[in-house]
Amino acid sequence: MKKPLISLTSDFGVQTQGIGNMHGVALQINPNANVIDLMHGIADFDIQSGARTMETTIHLPIGFHVCVVDPGVGTKRKGIAIKTKRGDVLVGPDNGVLIPATRILGGCDKVVALENPKYQKLPVSPIFHGRDVFTPAAAHLSTGVKIEELGEELKFEDLVKAPYEDAIIADDQIQSEVIHINKFGSIHLNISYALWDQFNPNEKIILEFNEKTIECPVVSTFGEVDKGKHLIMKDDYGRIEAAINLGSFSEKFKIKQGDKCVVKKNSSP
Amino acid sequence: MKKPLISLTSDFGVQTQGIGNMHGVALQINPNANVIDLMHGIADFDIQSGARTMETTIHLPIGFHVCVVDPGVGTKRKGIAIKTKRGDVLVGPDNGVLIPATRILGGCDKVVALENPKYQKLPVSPIFHGRDVFTPAAAHLSTGVKIEELGEELKFEDLVKAPYEDAIIADDQIQSEVIHINKFGSIHLNISYALWDQFNPNEKIILEFNEKTIECPVVSTFGEVDKGKHLIMKDDYGRIEAAINLGSFSEKFKIKQGDKCVVKKNSSP
Amino acid sequence: MKKPLISLTSDFGVQTQGIGNMHGVALQINPNANVIDLMHGIADFDIQSGARTMETTIHLPIGFHVCVVDPGVGTKRKGIAIKTKRGDVLVGPDNGVLIPATRILGGCDKVVALENPKYQKLPVSPIFHGRDVFTPAAAHLSTGVKIEELGEELKFEDLVKAPYEDAIIADDQIQSEVIHINKFGSIHLNISYALWDQFNPNEKIILEFNEKTIECPVVSTFGEVDKGKHLIMKDDYGRIEAAINLGSFSEKFKIKQGDKCVVKKNSSP
């Protein structure tokens, strides 16, 4: 029998007792699970980057993926578990952080509220649902508990909206948005590989941000341009990335997360 | 058979080869253990914060918990293993860092010195007992080795004292101390939930630090006060915490770890 | 049956989705492996420190050790797997980062190029071979796949050279080099314990760096000198370290990684 996989993602930063506590709680409930850290370096309360990271569960085995980017902990926001069509269950707060990953994992099969105290660590701390609600739910599911036992079924369309939607093509332009800036200053757009291929970029494309217009060669890796030069390419996680080879795109061009970006083909010869 | 749990805590910081080496040594001795990181972000040599973190083993499965906050490595300070009444074994230096956790895990059942070279990784580096003494002891215990085999039995009361004691109530005031300040600047006091409930705080309480007097509403989560306002509440690990909603209590009021704090009820109507 | 061990090392920094993705890919292929992080805090693209960290696999169980310090990803540099005489397999880029560890693990038994797409995660991202080439190779090997199946056999002597060689003794002096500076500012030299013992240092030795001459007492741990004083000793990972007790050697004496250092015995009485 395959050992189930539980992944943990949070904005807790450098290895804290919070992460260790979640590992312990998961293994208490299911000592046979493989529990891994997907990412804990998300900026405090950054739902957009959290959602973006959860998209990368596509590279993990089908499993139980917990996300604790949860500025609303202790308020009336619901805890939820989303069964995806791929077979994963995503567990976390109903604040939109799980929606983009749900789409990438094939869409929502079923979603429930986390209400049943039988599958919580009691007493539940009002300020740490990651340990007392989300991780226990994932761990119990990994032992074979049915998702229906966790609580009332919800409608996917009633959940809090995603922190970003996918880019769209209109008039042969892509209307996109910066959804993440990584530690090197590369910007990641809400453009999927599929939309990019459909857009069918030529050798150079033009990015329009508010006042700025930037022409970028389309490449497949950093080294195809000289040091300090900018480029655009498929990133390593299913999205499109604009970067500078050995430099910071976001710093050079003063781009922030959330900025809008229109992508055009260069029509000049 | 349940897989035994080994947890590792240290002041080694961002994932270093030291942590990886301890994982490897543990799994060499017991490949069937679940080895987790409880916390490695403790400030260098900060025994008080280390002790505080070890208290949170109460949320982990009964297991073998290693702590390497060890400014005295290479000196004559003993290495010890403490069997707790809950059934855990705490392993680390005899510098007080394991004492508060021992109390929270039900008290000391037995304590021994780590002397038997059969359960060490030889040759023992004089500067890395975490890898060569503490982790091997925990891993061998997790395979069923009896604690008596590790070395001479010691008396719990002869161990180096804890870096803090529990707060006490006198004259309807709590005499307390700041034992930890977290990354958000929230201060954690040596007041247990039980003492707090016994103190029976009313809606507002007064904190007296040296020259400063601060009135705090008693709440159960940050969001109950406005942004920038301070509060006091049960933290997520068994202690009492004073904080500012989306701000830093320790910075605003210039509080340091180790500061004394007298807690009073607000007698004005 | 013992569970195989897979270790992961990189320059990815604080827990990123890249590390989590590699864990997931490894467990997808071999859910029964123990997958650990050896180190992810290596400076960006620092092949020398990466090589130094890989040397510490000597303290891990015989296993499958992946190293992703890979400034040339996406170029024509090969991916390789080196079977060592101890029985480990080292997996990573052919840029020298695996060579010092190979020597410490007994030398090279066989080395192959990572070419067989059957043992890769397809499609291979041109910018993340850690996830799509190196980790899958290690994980497949851990399930019993033969190293010959991964690709063409190479000659060890044709691989890219190591980022440092071992120090040598000539005229009763050691010609050495600084291969790593740790977070405390201690410098680590390319001098093995064995060479050091052969050199047979007396109580004080002299380090000559370019313009500077520093006399150091030979000790076995920091505490043997007063706070702020410098020393030289065996480090905790098989090399020789010069340090200041509770201070920074590299800062005080302005030493950089890569600096040459001549080690002499103090001939004065």
Structure commentary:
Chain A is an alpha+beta fold. Chain A folds into two domains: 5-158, S-adenosyl-l-methionine hydroxide adenosyltransferase, N-terminal (Rossmann fold), CATH 3.40.50; 168-265, Elongation Factor Tu (Ef-tu), domain 3. Helices cover 20% and strands 31% of the residues of chain A. The first copy, chain A, has six helices and 15 strands. Chain A has helices at 17-29, 47-55, 99-104, 129-142, 193-199, 249-252, and strands spanning 5-10, 34-39, 64-68, 79-84, 89-93, 108-113, 153-154, 168-170, 173-181, 187-192, 204-209, 212-217, 230-234, 239-244, 260-265. In chain A, strands 8, 9, 10, 11, 12, 13, 14 and 15 form an eight-stranded antiparallel beta sheet that branches. In chain A, helix 1 (17-29) packs parallel to helix 4 (129-142). The first copy, chain A, is elongated. The N and C termini of chain A lie far apart (59 Å). The mean pLDDT of chain A is 95. Chains in contact: A-B, A-C, B-C.
Can you give keywords for this protein?
homotrimer, 269 residues, alpha+beta, Rossmann fold, Elongation Factor Tu (Ef-tu), domain 3, 8-stranded antiparallel sheet, 7-stranded mixed sheet, elongated
Secondary-structure blueprint of this entry?
3 copies of one chain form a homotrimer.
Chain A: E1 5-10, H1 17-29, E2 34-39, H2 47-55, E3 64-68, E4 79-84, E5 89-93, H3 99-104, E6 108-113, H4 129-142, E7 153-154, E8 168-170, E9 173-181, E10 187-192, H5 193-199, E11 204-209, E12 212-217, E13 230-234, E14 239-244, H6 249-252, E15 260-265
Parallel strand pairs in A: 1-2, 1-3, 3-5
Antiparallel strand pairs in A: 4-5, 4-6, 6-7, 8-9, 9-10, 9-15, 10-14, 11-12, 11-15, 13-14
